[in-house]
Amino acid sequence: MWMIANDKNGVSSWELHRGIGVTQKTAWFMLQRIRLAMQSGTFEKAVEQVEVDETFIGQKARNMHKWPREEKITGTDGKDKTMVVGVFQRGGKVRGSVTQSRRKASLQAHVREHVEPGAAIFTDALKSYDGLDSNYAHQVVDHD
After folding, report:
1. Burial of 27 by CB count in 10 Å (0-12 exposed, 13-18 middle, 19+ buried)?
2. Residue 93, C-beta contacts closer than 8 angstroms, at least 6 positions apart
3. What is the pLDDT of residues 2-11, one digit of tens each?
4. Which of 20, 81, 86, 106 has the smallest number of CB atoms closer than 10 Å to its CB?
5. How far out from the chain centre does Cα 9 lie?
6. 136, exposed or middle or buried, with CB in 10 Å at 0-12, 13-18, 19+?
7. Measuring CA to CA, how many Å separate 77 from each of 56, 72, 73, 102, 116?
8. Contacts of 68 (CB under 8 A, 6+ apart)
9. pLDDT tens, 35-88?
10. Residue 27: left (phi > 0), alpha (psi -120 to 50), or beta?
11. Sign (positive/negative) of CA torsion 34, 37, 38, 42?
């Protein structure tokens, strides 16, 4: 960590590999984890009570001029927008990241990556969150 924090131009995985005597692949993995920890301030996952939700980010079609709308909007249901998943630890921070889809595999992988097993998770009634009960205390918030 000292090498990374004190080098103004950054450190490559090859430089780290030579400096501390590990393989280049291990040095690359370590750099990814250290950079993430330096960015977020912690290596820890969200614990205790955690809220998870997804949203689509992008411009509304009704606010666009006619010609860009015809080019950019090709369907409905957020097809042309970016999907973001947020993990909010109550009393803590929000972690947001882009995901490719609303499918079960994608969303549950995101939850497992950012939330400690055993935590209480609160989600909406989206079917993609079904199956989290095995590792988490999963509760559904019904917006109706």
Report:
1. buried
2. 40
3. 777 777 777 8
4. 20
5. 27
6. buried
7. 9, 14, 11, 11, 31
8. none
9. 877 776 655 676 677 888 887 776 666 666 776 666 666 555 555 677 788 888
10. alpha
11. negative
Q: Indicate the Cα dihedral angle 91, 94, 99, 101, nearest 10°.
A: 40
Query: 99: burial class by Cβ within 10 Å (0-12, 13-18, 19+)?
Result: middle
Rounded alpha-carbon distances, angstroms, from residue 41 to 19, 27, 33: 24, 20, 11
Partners of 117 in the β-ladder: none
Q: How far apart are CA 40 and CA 95, in angstroms?
A: 9
> Quick check: helix, strand or coil at residue 97?
strand
Distance CA 35, CA 39 (A): 6
pLDDT of residue 5: 74
Q: Where are the domains of the chain?
A: 2-40, 49-140
